[in-house]
Specification:
It contains ten helices and eight strands. The protein has about 350 residues and is α/β, with parallel strands linked by helices. It folds into two domains: about 220 residues, 3-Layer(aba) Sandwich (Rossmann fold); about 80 residues, no CATH class. Strands 1-2-4-3-5-6-7-8 form an eight-stranded mixed sheet, with helices on both faces. About 35% of the residues are buried. The N terminus is likely disordered. The structure holds 2-acetamido-2-deoxy-beta-D-glucopyranose (3 copies). The site of one 2-acetamido-2-deoxy-beta-D-glucopyranose (NAG) has 4 residues, from loops. Keywords: Membrane, Transmembrane, Transmembrane helix.
Length: about 350
């Protein structure tokens, strides 16, 4: 009798659990959370990846040119143009092969994912803080051409990814007669194509990845999308990146060398100081949030944490900007970008 009652209770509990799970599943299907990013499902368990093995051609015409070939036969060449105040050295982890590299979290994941996808990566630093559409265009054309010939990759499709200033630069470089891009990805930038007086006849298919919280940018991207589609008959696509909440482990999940302890401590400080709301969303852009100041305002900092934070200020700020989703480079949409690239690789060959 006792055992029967026990079993029936267990059965009721199981049935109850089933109903709850079923309801939850239906609910999640019809009301997907606005939060697309779940750090617990990221595949980057091996954060400090041993797959990085860059070659730095640091003295080619006074700019950094850093490259890496994938493990197997490459299927495409991906040229990457960074934003203002950034450099090619942001895209690889610091190693003996690249002692000036600082491996910013989004940049390094873009490279890592692209390598795993079989792309040869070429990153060139701008000559000045931002890219210019002057003599720099010709010099980058020459460098890309030279590098591709040097590695005998002329037969592979050339792809481009540019962020912010690098996106504007790439959108212009894509009109080049010297190098022909098969398709390009413009991140957090509107492109300059609709401002040109002479229009190219064969502009490459273009995917825009932007953050609609920046409404001015959204309007410009809308305009460029329409221009490319209607005036140049170019295939276009847009990916809209939305904000997501910080979690206590977000920073340690995405920044190699930043421990879980530091991550959880920072998260608590952010909450205590009102930088994030009670759901974990950033209230402002990371650049606008005076989050570094509490390191100096007499707060008691666990031993060793200060130096870890100080060594990762740019890394942390980048993730805060990304979570706020106003203006930051992102690696979160790379799978969609690769699919876009690959659809347009096939369609021409
Ligand atoms: C890279 O690592 C080396 C050796 O560990 C170190 O001396 C150097 O300061 C690091 N560079 C950067 C930019 O972090
Ligand atoms: C480097 O610059 C020189 C002088 O401007 C030019 O002749 C040469 O082609 C350039 N090399 C590359 C690889 O772009
Ligand atoms: C941009 O276009 C989308 C639809 O394609 C529209 O919903 C949105 O309001 C537009 N944004 C701006 C700022 O014009």
């Amino acid at each position: 009798m006792v055992s029967f009652r026990f079993r029936s209770k267990r059965w009721r509990a199981a049935a109850y659990l089933f109903v709850v799970m079923f309801t939850l599943a239906i609910y999640m299907k019809f009301f997907p959370s606005r939060v697309k990013f779940d750090s617990s499902t990221t595949e980057w368990d091996d954060l400090s990846s041993s797959e990085f093995n860059p070659t730095v051609d640091g003295s080619v015409n006074h700019t950094d040119l850093i490259w890496q070939l994938p493990a197997g036969a490459p299927k495409a060449v991906l040229f990457i143009a960074h934003g203002c105040n950034h450099r090619a050295t942001d895209f690889w982890d610091n190693s003996s092969g690249c002692p000036h590299c600082i491996g910013l979290p989004e940049e390094r994941l873009i490279v890592l994912k692209a390598l795993r996808r079989g792309y040869a990566i070429l990153v060139i630093s701008s000559l000045r803080t931002c890219w210019s559409l002057g003599d720099e265009v010709e010099s980058v054309e020459r460098l890309i051409k030279w590098w591709i010939a040097e590695h005998r990759l002329q037969k592979l499709p050339l792809l481009g990814l540019g962020a912010s200033s690098g996106g504007e630069f790439l959108s212009y470089l894509a009109t080049s007669e010297q190098i022909k891009f098969r398709s390009i990805a413009i991140l957090i930038a509107e492109g300059v194509i609709d401002t040109l007086t002479t229009l190219p006849v064969d502009y490459p298919p273009t995917i825009f990845v932007h953050m609609p919280k920046d409404a001015v940018m959204e309007r410009s991207v809308n305009g460029t999308l329409k221009f490319l589609r209607d005036n140049l008959n170019v295939p276009v696509k847009e990916i809209r990146c939305l904000e997501f909440p910080l979690t206590p482990e977000l920073l340690s999940d995405r920044i190699p060398g930043l421990s879980r302890g530091v991550s959880v401590w920072l998260f608590r400080q952010f909450r205590k100081r009102g930088f994030i709301d009670d759901k974990g969303f950033m209230k402002n852009d990371g650049r606008e949030t005076k989050w570094k100041s509490f390191l100096d305002d007499g707060v008691s900092i666990p031993a060793g944490y200060r130096s870890v934070v100080n060594n990762h200020l740019d890394h942390i700020e980048e993730e805060l900007n990304l979570a706020f989703a106003y203006h930051e480079i992102t690696s979160l949409e790379m799978d969609k970008i690769f699919r876009w690239f690959e659809v347009h690789m096939k369609s021409i060959n």
